[in-house]
Design a protein that fits this description.
Strand content: 5-15%
CATH class of one domain: Alpha Beta
Low-confidence stretches: 1-30
Number of helices: 20
Mean pLDDT: 80
Length: 504
């Protein structure tokens, strides 16, 4: 029963129990705020959308669009599955709020905007948007915040329950992995999820506003969404790599979901790759594609790209061209949980190997590379260091490399290509399964290495690029000694020095 006083105070229905009432003094009426905000929301949404589109266009402008397009699936069935996968969240929430609030069909668009806002703009900003939409558009007489809160909390709780169930099954995998099973982060993640879930259950009478039957309905829909997205993702992966059966993809998808939900576990991609390798074997096509992980660390005032790469199965790795900033390099290896096995050098210039000898002594590891034709550059590192104001110290590699040699790191094997021109002893490291080449100063995005240094040779450099690198395949991505990564196909089309149209 509602009443109205002469002062305008009212007794409004409780959001869930209409028979109960409360004075207006204790209930916030958001209508004036909503009305005042309608004007700015009309133009704020389109402006944000335009800004997001502009940022996306800018990010994609530097990519090789031809190679990117070539990688896109062509099957219409794939894109239908992708659409179902992406909209699974909004669809499940529409089903939920259709029951709770009887929202119209237009509510799906609002839920889709909610998803985009959370993913692109700011986490839970979408909930704020959907709350405002529900107040304006849905046939709700009372504030919907309580139901929205319950749905969000239940989503997290169901995710925690699923994660804990999967973790109970997968725990032997964690225990068997090097540098993973012994970390406290797994135990900390378990305690965190248990703690938050138990608090929610203990305080459920105060925390939840929905009736119990609705709570069970919402939880069931969230569970079905998790199952559906796992199966849909596995189907898409199977279409991209049909040699791997759907059941294996479902297993890997479940594993990936488990790892992504452990809040305190670092290097989630590394852990997933290691567990996948352990679970399905090193010879799998999937594992081969994930066998190598790498990160770039710019060092020295010349911003040389030192590459830290490692074997995901053993977590043993190497630095390629550790020219300086040794504390930074050591921290990077520790952060990724990588045990450095050796140092690799592409050529003898100060920014690429000035402190390789020092780091090798500190870590107690060997140095492999470059080709012995670069000995004269390594012998003058101390002199060049004074000239460039970069610390430099000569060293003797434990192994000089030749064209056709191989280097091993963990379970990885990389091919060695002798590519003179920038320096006479320059080498390139190529990991065929990953389609990755570490090319030093032979080739850059939009440029090539200088050949005006002592014993440099322009024609030798062109011959090395066209005769050694191009045959590796256009999809091969490469790490240059400076600047951004690229791939050979893009350079063959656009590089002003070695594009096919330039060389004829």
């Amino acid at each position: 029963m509602t009443g109205q006083t002469s002062a305008g105070s009212a007794f409004l229905p409780h959001p869930l129990y209409p028979e109960a009432g409360a004075p207006l003094a204790t209930v916030i009426n958001p209508q004036p705020l909503i009305r005042s905000g309608r004007n700015w929301t009309l133009w704020a949404g389109p402006i944000v959308s335009v800004l997001i589109l502009a940022v996306a266009v800018h990010q994609f402008s530097g990519l090789d669009r031809h190679s990117l397009w070539a990688l896109m699936p062509t099957s219409p069935f794939f894109w239908l599955i992708f659409l179902a996968y992406y909209t699974a969240g909004p669809v499940s929430e529409w089903v939920i709020f259709r029951r709770l609030w009887t929202i119209p069909a237009s509510g799906f668009d609002a839920l889709l905007r909610k998803l985009v806002s959370n993913e692109i703009l700011l986490g839970y900003l979408g909930e704020v948007y959907f709350y405002a939409w529900a107040r304006r558009s849905a046939a709700i007489k009372a504030a919907p915040f309580g139901a929205l809160k319950d749905v969000t909390i239940l989503s997290a709780l169901v995710g925690n329950v699923v994660t804990l169930a999967m973790l109970a099954i997968a725990m032997p995998l964690f225990e068997a992995l090097p540098n993973v099973g012994r970390h406290w982060e797994v135990g900390g993640s378990i305690l965190f999820m248990l703690g938050t879930s138990l608090i929610a259950m203990v305080l459920r009478n105060k925390l939840f506003a929905l009736p119990r039957i609705d709570l069970w309905f919402v939880a069931a829909i969230h569970l079905l969404r998790i199952i559906a997205t796992t199966v849909l993702a596995a189907t898409m992966w199977h279409m991209l790599l049909p040699s791997v059966d759907v059941s294996t993809w479902i297993m890997l998808g479940t594993l990936r979901q488990l790892i992504s939900r452990l809040p305190m576990l670092p290097n989630k991609d590394v852990v997933f790759a290691a567990m996948a390798a352990f679970l399905i074997g090193q010879d799998s096509e999937i594992v081969s594609a994930m066998a190598l992980m790498a990160t770039l660390i710019p060092v020295t005032p010349l911003q040389q790209n030192c590459t830290l790469f490692w074997c995901t199965a053993t977590m043993r790795g190497a630095f390629v061209d550790p020219g300086g900033d040794l504390p930074v390099l050591k921290r990077a290896a520790a952060q990724h949980g990588v045990t450095i096995e050796k140092l690799l050098v592409t050529h003898g210039h100060i920014d690429h190997c000035g402190q390789a000898g020092v780091l090798a002594r500190d870590l107690g590891v060997p140095i492999e590379g470059p080709h012995e034709e670069d000995r004269f550059w390594i012998d003058r590192l101390a002199e060049d260091g004074k000239r460039w104001n970069v610390p430099g110290e000569s060293f003797e590699p434990d192994r000089w490399l030749l064209d056709g040699d191989q280097v091993t790191v963990g379970n990885l094997t990389l091919d060695v290509l002798h590519c003179p021109g920038h320096t006479p002893g320059h080498v390139v490291f190529h990991h065929a399964p990953s389609q990755l080449a570490i090319v030093g100063d032979v080739l850059f995005k939009g440029s090539i290495g200088r050949t005006d240094f002592p014993r440099g040779n322009h024609q030798d450099l062109i011959d090395a690029i066209t005769g050694k690198l191009w045959p590796l395949g256009g999809q091969t991505a490469f790490v240059p000694g400076h600047g951004e990564m690229s791939n050979f196909a893009y350079e063959r089309r656009t590089n002003p020095y070695v594009a096919d149209s330039v060389l004829g």
